Amino acid sequence: MAKKQVFGSEALQQKASARKMAKVVVSTKNENGKYSYREVMIDQDNVSEFLSKNKS
Fold it and tell me: In the 8-state DSSP scheme, what is residue 12?
């Protein structure tokens, strides 16, 4: 079944309200000496705050 497409001001309003997300990969070193990676999806505006909080 096809999805209904919206045109005009309604479509622009929906597009503007969509959140822009960023995928951040954080690495941590285990007690074995190996690295493990964790992926986090956060708002694009909060990337610098997240990185400053999670620096080791």
Answer: H
Euclidean distance between CA atoms 38 and 25, whole angstroms: 6
Radius of gyration of the chain measured on its C-alpha atoms: 18
The residue to which tokens 């990337």 are assigned: 47
Please state, in angstroms and as integers, the Cα–Cα distance from residue 25 to each residue in 19, 21, 44, 48, following that order.
19, 13, 14, 13
pLDDT at 56: 60
E-state strands within 1-56: 21-29, 35-43
Single-letter amino acid code for the residue at 7: F
Q: What is the pLDDT of residues 7-23, one digit of tens each?
A: 777 777 777 777 889 99
CB-based contact 24:42 (threshold 8 Å): yes
